[in-house]
Design goal:
two-stranded parallel sheet, 4 helices, alpha/beta, 10 strands
């Protein structure tokens, strides 16, 4: 888990994975300090082989300039060659949008729309293409995934994304006027997968 500040999303995922004995978590905060590299619990892997030992990398709202160019290539190869998972959790500071000019641009399932204001959804719902997907089924079998997502509190803000060719919309944000916008995008990249 790599983020630029201890956002709610980062704290939630850190606690969720740390409590599950099946996961070993490395949580890295890139704030005023530079990105720390090494084998420690709060350091980014110092080499490509160490990164490839992971199954999932979560990148939050951090300045992409924190990574060296070769580390961006490692992340691309981690997904494309190694078959790892990459989860991108964008934020108000636009750190992930700065990755659009780097090597990770090819991985992204969606593009941010320049100059667009963040969305303020009223609810989330499972997109038609994702109905029946076990990963999105949060409730008991009798309730169904659709009803559970609509009942959850909506995020305060979402970055407006335009899906790229080959990307699937898994969750939609329902807006006050009844229209929808992508909230969770999925894309296969080589042997791996990316969620944004």
């Amino acid at each position: 888990l790599v983020d630029g500040r201890p956002r709610w999303e980062w704290r939630y995922l850190d606690n969720l994975f740390s409590r599950d004995r099946k996961w070993k978590v490395t949580s890295v905060m890139v704030g005023e300090e530079p990105l720390q590299r090494g084998p420690g619990e709060h350091e980014f892997p110092a080499d490509r082989a160490s990164l490839f030992a992971y199954d999932l990398v979560v990148l939050g709202d951090l300045p992409f300039e924190a990574f060296r160019p070769d580390e961006g290539e490692w992340l691309r190869d981690f997904v494309g060659e190694r078959g790892g998972g990459l989860l991108l959790i964008d934020g108000a500071r636009g750190g992930l949008r700065s990755a659009a000019v780097g090597v990770l641009d090819a991985l992204r399932p969606g593009d941010g729309l320049p100059g667009s204001a963040p969305l303020s959804p009223t609810a989330l719902r499972v997109a038609a293409a994702a109905e029946g997907l076990p990963a999105l089924d949060l409730g008991p079998a009798s309730a169904g995934a659709k009803s559970v997502w609509v009942e959850l509190p909506a995020p305060h803000q979402l970055v407006r994304l335009k899906p790229r060719t080959g990307a699937e919309v898994l969750l939609e944000a329902v807006l006050a006027d009844g229209s929808t916008a992508p909230a969770l995008l999925h894309r296969r990249f080589g042997a791996g997968q990316v969620l944004h």
